[in-house]
Amino acid sequence: MNKRRTAQEILDEYKRFRILTVGRAGGGKSSLINRVFNVKDAKVSDSKPGEAEIDLEITSETNKLFVLHDSKGFEPSKADTFHIVEQFIRDRSDKDLQLKDRLHAAWLCIRTPFSGARVLEAGDENFLKIAHDGNIPVVVVFTQYDTFVTWFEEQCDNCKSCSECEKCMNLETCEKRKSSETCENCKTAAKDAYNEHVKSLEDAAIRLGIPTPEHINVSVRHGYTENIVPLVDKTEKLVEKHLPEDDAWYLWALAQMVSLPLKIRACADQAMIHYSRALIATGSTPAVGRPLLFHRLVEVHEDIITCMNVQDPDNVSSFLRCTPNSWALTISKVLRSTEFKHVLLHVVQHMRNKEDTKSSPFDIEKITQVVQLFATASAALAQPAAILGLSFTFFKWLLDAVCANVPEVQRVFISYTVDLMLVLRELFDFTLQRQWAGRVTWGDLGEAWAAYHRTPSQARVHSEITELVKKHEGLSANSEAIHESVVELLRKHRAIDT
Known about the structure:
Pfam families: MMR_HSR1 (PF01926). It comes from Mycena metata. InterPro entries: GTP-bd, P-loop_NTPase. The chain has helices at residues 7-14, 29-37, 79-92, 122-133, 145-154, 166-169, 184-208, 228-242, 248-255, 260-284, 293-308, 338-348, 364-376, 382-388, 392-400, 407-432, 442-454, 457-472, 479-492; strands spanning 17-23, 43-44, 58-60, 63-70, 105-111, 138-143, 214-217, 319-322, 327-330. By secondary structure, the chain is an alpha/beta fold. The chain folds into two domains: 7-255, P-loop containing nucleotide triphosphate hydrolases (Rossmann fold), CATH 3.40.50.300; 260-492, no CATH class. The strands form two sheets. Strands 2-3-4-1-5-6-7 form a seven-stranded mixed beta sheet, sandwiched between helices. Strands 8-9 form a two-stranded antiparallel ribbon. Strand 3 and strand 4 (63-70) form a beta hairpin. Helix 5 crosses helix 7, helix 11 packs parallel to helix 16 (407-432) and helix 13 (364-376) runs antiparallel to helix 14. The protein is globular and about 75 Å long.
């Protein structure tokens, strides 16, 4: 397997995750893409005269980490145009292509057929065969599942409404509609019919001589979205299986905007890559070249924020920002700002030499003051540091400390990265509830900090990290030990699903 790479190294090679959607018009492809990638402004790149529509790159300013190719106009059912899709698959699966130009995954979108309708047409089957031959990960997505369930409701005496009844027109309950919820009979009938569709898919795979493709039913309608995240997870597993040595799953984790656990998993991997590299460098490089803990934390912070793929608003004020070699005045983003890093350092500074972490040093009133300061003016670095009580002794130690396999360094490094990821979990959940999801302000960040502080998680996490370092007595002896332990810690505190 290739050497594990950081997020920036992967982005330098891939640029964007490239995905193809295939399916008939009106099948819900656009709504699905908008939901998964949290975009509403997807734009088509400039094309050359006569270029096939499927070759056009659809991108978005609000999420720059994916490229969409859409088969609109070249439906699999149309034999005279499907050769264009076929040629696209063959061209984009060429292993001589650079990774950034290859197709990384595809969704075959089929509007969930009503009972008795044909599931796969000849073009769909041809597409599955070609994609399999080109080693392209494909998920068959049965879209608009809510409409499928509604069809069964309309056949059900218990669910259907009477268009001539005043009560039904006003959505009141009556003898012909006993409940506003789908009844169990309709749910069972819809599930049984869907299973028949899956059986048809399995039969088609046998005829084609390929494994049964991954499949799932989805809907973007409220109340039916429970399979959106499983679709993302299925896609990730397929990408990791088909491109195991190319780290494509990292880019998928970054580009998608609905599965927080997948992002956290990528964040944890990134942090541990930096930590492992630092330990290796410490043991084999002359003293002058040994990585310092402070610089390594800056790198980890940057890569974790990159993994989250959260867009900052355009009107964020200018702040002092730390760069590995100097302090410089730049237009800083909220999550990448020096001030945010100092908030994190304030929270973890006691982990240097204090093993009793039952009481948390986190002071929500001080954090509130800092957030208010950030929101109203461009604050000098000394102001937030003074409010937080960031220890000069600790800060100087941090600047001088070498990344090494010693308890105080381990505790600070692990605490910083885990606290950062758990706060981002709160932030991600919070921003997803709003129409402008994917953007963040200082006020949002303050609320995320408060949410993290209101639970007992922070003090408990620090205690568990202290015990973790004691237990392993030298985590560098096994580079995977710290990784597995951190993932388990995040899973325990609901950042990663089991």
